[in-house]
Design a protein that fits this description.
Structural class of chain A: mainly alpha
Order of helices and strands of chain B: HHHH
CATH class of the largest domain in chain A: Alpha Beta
Low-confidence stretches of chain B: none
Number of helices of chain A: 6
Oligomer: heterodimer
Shape of chain A: elongated
Helix content of chain A: 55-70%
Number of strands of chain A: 3
Number of strands of chain B: 0
Shape of chain B: elongated
CATH architecture of the largest domain in chain A: 2-Layer Sandwich
Distance between the termini of chain B: 64 Å
Largest sheet of chain A: 3 strands, antiparallel
Structural class of chain B: mainly alpha
Strand order of the largest sheet of chain A: 1-3-2
Low-confidence stretches of chain A: none
Strand content of chain A: 5-15%
Largest interface: A-B, 39 and 49 residues
Mean pLDDT of chain B: 79
Distance between the termini of chain A: 28 Å
Largest sheet of chain B: none
CATH topology of the largest domain in chain A: Alpha-Beta Plaits
Number of domains of chain B: 1
């Protein structure tokens, strides 16, 4: 029974996501769009199955919710911080800086999420990965203290992602 | 009541206008290309977000129907903004940064963009 279910729903998260996106796209909340979204959600993962060789397992759903909230809050703060730097700080006083963040994460999906998060949050853009994927190169808009920024990224995001993915 | 709702929507719209403006202004004010990248990736997130919140508030509170289209725009924005930023950053590293100018890449010795340059011979287009 479980085996049959796995054959029909090779990627349950993707099924859910596709249905959800379809219902939002249709934007009327009718049963019609829900059913059609579900059909798409079943067919597409089934056909694209060979492209998802190893799917990451999400271990901790409570942490996922916490992570999303933390990131959303940080994005709001980031916008205000960056706006203040742009408007009120003289360009000569600003200290742009490269920093190197050593990664403990090994799952490609987790690193992708971390890099995306870094780009969306306070004054940092992730720029490159080291040749074997062990370090992340981050550019800071204004970082008088690069170590503090690095520790904050590791503390705030990487620790949570590690609990979610690994 | 309607007045309060309209006030709320107006506040969201003004907020988004301010952040959109700051994002564009940053492009002019900041001097080096890498710093310029920061302004559009962040300040505009709240700029677009404000319009979307205003749109949701308008359809829910004034028209009385639930419209969640806008959440999708946010979702797609969060997916595309980091990728665009990464592409521009990689281009910058590729063209204007030497391995010596960047921090140490630890045990891997090189950053991925530079490592590729060594493996394959990247044609030089900068002359023309």
């Amino acid at each position: 029974m479980m085996k049959l279910l796995r054959r029909i729903f090779p990627h349950p998260h993707l099924t859910f996501l596709l249905t959800f996106v379809w219902v939002l796209l249709a934007n009327n909340g009718s049963l019609n769009s829900l059913v059609f979204g579900l059909i798409l959600g079943i067919i597409i993962p089934f056909i694209t199955q060979p492209y998802w060789p190893d799917r990451p397992k999400l271990r901790n759903w409570r942490m996922v919710a916490e992570y999303i909230l933390v990131v959303l809050w940080d994005i709001v703060v980031a916008n205000v911080t960056v706006a203040r730097i742009i408007l009120f700080k003289r360009d000569a006083d600003r200290q742009p800086n490269w920093i190197c963040v050593p990664l403990e994460l090994r799952t490609p999906e987790a690193i992708t999420v971390l890099a995306g998060t870094i780009t969306m949050t306070p004054g940092t853009v992730s720029c490159d990965l080291s040749a074997q994927g062990h370090n992340l190169l981050v550019h800071c808009l204004d970082a008088p203290d690069p170590e503090a920024v690095r520790d904050q990224i590791k503390q705030r995001y990487e620790r949570r992602l590690k609990e979610i993915f690994e | 009541m309607t007045f309060l709702v309209e006030l709320l929507i107006a506040v969201f719209l003004i907020m988004s206008g301010i952040f959109g403006f700051v994002g564009s202004f940053g492009m002019i004010k900041l001097k080096d290309p890498m710093s310029r990248l920061h302004a559009p990736t962040k300040a505009t997130t709240l700029g677009v977000g404000g319009v979307l919140l205003a749109s949701i508030a308008h359809s829910v509170l004034l028209e009385g129907k639930l419209s969640m289209h806008e959440l999708l725009i946010t979702l797609f924005l969060f997916l595309t903004a980091p990728i665009t930023a990464l592409f521009i950053a990689k281009w910058h590293i590729h063209r204007h940064e030497k391995p010596e100018g960047l921090p140490d890449a630890g045990e891997d010795e090189l950053w991925a963009t530079h490592a590729v340059e060594q493996v394959e011979d990247v044609p030089d287009h900068s002359a023309n």
